[in-house]
Amino acid sequence: MWPKYWPECYNIIMAKQDELIQLKSEAEEDKNLPLRQGATQIVFGDGNPESEFFFLGEAPGFFEDQKGVPFVGKAGQLLNETLKEIGIERGKIWISNVVYFRPSENRDPTPEEIAAFRPYVDRQIEIIDPQVIVTLGRFSMAKFLPGAKISQVHGKPKWIMTAGQRRVLVPMYHPAAALRGTGIMNEFKNDFQNIPRVLRKIEREAEESEQPNQINRQISLF
């Protein structure tokens, strides 16, 4: 027998899916979005719309452009393996990029291109409403921490305000960067070990904030 609250949860999930479908359609029809020429299709986002985790990468590559799904190439395989190592299945997260069309020759997206997609990225975050945002690479990190150096902040959780809510940001190296060198690979793997700990602290803070004498207490993530 389904729990008595199941219809309400089901309705919330379906509402989010409908909103994401509508948002994707709007992006597909938006002729002002750059990078459309030369791209096979839009690469909008993928995963569980009810996830506590929103992973945000940089731009689709060749395989993502072909399949219409983010992180399905070698970098995506590394991401999937690393998620499994911390007990999280790929299907339980939501994942997207700061631009939805593949830049030619897999070049870096420009600031102007990232800015053009920003309203859609922000709306995705608002719909998913995650507790934790994990940025993959310096371009997605710069959306929340402009001017920061990824070599200095990677793996360090921070409280941010975005999409009207207080959330935790965890900047990470891009898995493609980890594939290029052992040093970054080790840091990438180690940083991922922080994610379950961060979520536990968020949940503990939420529980303690429900107590009258703990309402104003904030638990450090460091």
Structure description:
Strand 5 and strand 6 form a beta hairpin. This protein is globular. About 4% of the residues have low confidence. Helix 1 runs antiparallel to helix 4. By secondary structure, the chain is α/β, with parallel strands linked by helices. It starts with 5 loop residues before the first helix and ends in a 13-residue tail after the last helix. The chain has a six-stranded mixed sheet with strand order 1-3-2-4-6-5, sandwiched between helices. The longest helix is centred in the N-terminal third of the chain and has 24 residues. The protein is built from nine helices and six strands; from the N terminus they run H-E-E-H-H-E-H-E-H-H-E-E-H-H-H.
Write the layout of secondary structure elements.
Layout: H1 6-29, E1 46-47, E2 53-57, H2 62-67, H3 74-85, E3 94-97, H4 111-128, E4 132-136, H5 138-144, H6 150-153, E5 158-162, E6 165-172, H7 175-178, H8 182-192, H9 194-209
Parallel strand pairs: 2-3, 2-4, 4-6
Antiparallel strand pairs: 1-3, 5-6
Helix pairs in contact: 1-4
Key traits:
222 residues
Short structural summary:
This protein is α/β, with parallel strands linked by helices. The protein has helices at 6-29, 62-67, 74-85, 111-128, 138-144, 150-153, 175-178, 182-192, 194-209, and strands at 46-47, 53-57, 94-97, 132-136, 158-162, 165-172.
